[in-house]
Amino acid sequence: MNKIDELIDRIDALRNPTVVGLDPTPALVPAPLTAQYIGQYGKTPRAIAAAFLAYNKAIIDAIADVVPAVKPQVAMYEAYGADGVAVYSETCEYAASKGLIVIGDVKRGDISSTAAAYAAHLAGVDIFGERFDPWHEDFITVNPYLGSDGILPFTRACAESGKGVFVLVKTSNPSSAEIQDIEIEEMQADWEPTGKSATGDIVSALFALKTMPLYEQVARYVNLWG
Hints:
10 helices
């Protein structure tokens, strides 16, 4: 079963479409918990990361039978270096162990071998013939605004792993309109892939009809990539 089917089934079973974000900061973690780990490790990234993990586990234990999924935001952990990244992975692994779907909010967007390396979030990595999943995510978020070269490595990883991506199309930040709402000519097409290269498999015939926001055109590409 693909992970999207698991997510839909879990939403139906719990009658709840809620996703809980796991975006910790020192201000959100209860002060006594932070103080405990500062007493153990000093005022170091390791202390903050340990506090984040304890805090996340408490949240996961409280919600595991109520919501279908969690969404940790990787930047909150990366800010604390290697200790934070390790706790991100441990958080994902712990959530998965409790039966939750894990959506890694990583918003990756790059091309070529870099995108393929980022796709290891889904496909895992090969270590001398052994496949290893260091991230424990079921989905990740990706940014499509570099075009299909930045997306197809992830779709290939999805095909291999049964996992999935959530693709940004129209974001909620106020300045998104500066780019995403630009009016472009809407193109009429059959939107069927032709089997050509990554940049040439869009359609066989295009002609302009009317204007539309750029993000709507991106949504059409997402449909094609899917």
